[in-house]
User: Fold this.
Amino acid sequence: MTHSIIRFKRKELGMTQRDLARVVGCAQTHISFLERQCNGASPDLAAKIARVLGITTEDVLYPNK
Assistant:
């Protein structure tokens, strides 16, 4: 499995999964699934996560590219 850019950037910013979930308006478990690439994000949620973490929406939507 590749390392998750979401996890890397979140940790780099000193955020927990719960912190990120609270900021973007989703459940902590959803962030966990995204980091493990078990679940995808909606375009709206991907944009929110990208904005908070300073990455592109495509990085969230297509983590294996």
Remarks:
- Residues 43-53 form the longest helix (11 residues).
- The chain has a mean pLDDT of 92.
- The radius of gyration is 10 Å.
- The chain has five helices and no strands.
